[in-house]
Amino acid sequence: MKTATKVKSAKKPVPKAKPSEKLDLYSQYSKEYAASPTPGLVTVGAATYLSISGEGAPGGPAFTEAIGALYGVAFTVKMTRKFAGKQDYVVSKLEGLWPSFKDGEPVPDKEQWPWQMMIRTPEFIKPREIEEAVAVLKKRGKGAGADRVRLESVEEGICVQSLHVGPYEKEGATICAMKSFAESKGFKLRGVHHEIYLSDPRRAAPAKLKTILRHPLEAIEV
Questions:
Q1: How far apart are CA 222 and CA 1, in angstroms?
Q2: pLDDT tens profile 43-60
Q3: pLDDT digits 0-9 by tens, 49-88
Q4: Does 3.20.80.10 match the CATH number of domain 25-219?
Q5: What is the residue extent of each domain of the chain?
Q6: Cα distance between residue 125 and residue 186, in whole Å
Q7: Fewer Cβ close by (within 10 Å): the C or N end of the chain?
Q8: 0.85 cut: is pTM over it?
Q9: Residue among 67, 94, 26, 46 nearest 149 (CA)
Q10: CA 102 to CA 117: how far, in whole Å?
């Protein structure tokens, strides 16, 4: 049995944006989002997210409401800080955690799929700011689902990562390639798989959608 390939990750101090600069987490942590169609290993540190969980088909009513609530809170917090003269930042791209279905087992109906949708957010955002944003949205009549948005920390460690180009329904082949690559390095998949959406499906053709696929790993026992 193969042993896991060691991945070195020298921790270097991350430069902080000056108050007059707009913080961009994707630029600050660019190595964590580096991906190509060829799978590779990446070490992902702890990250803070605005998060909302639910169940149902992607694009269905529950899913659509959750995405609206997530973005509503994200932009309300950002603009409130900006108008108050506090540190400004770019609202990050949408990300999602999805169940990993085991080989050979039937895939549940999409209406039963659990999901967790997320937007990475700066560590200086506090729960109080989320509560205030939810109150603002409710006052404006746009608070549906907003009270389900929460702050959450996610730390994935060593992962296999690849860029998938094409429809979401065709991700299976990319995930299989990631699994084979991970096993060749002495790892196996663990937990749920992570998607980072680089394209807007409302504007891009399905064949041109770009999605970073990420899956946490654990060493194969000897």
A1: 6
A2: 999 999 999 999 999 999
A3: 999 999 999 999 999 999 999 999 999 999 999 999 999 9
A4: yes
A5: 25-219
A6: 38
A7: N
A8: yes
A9: 67
A10: 22
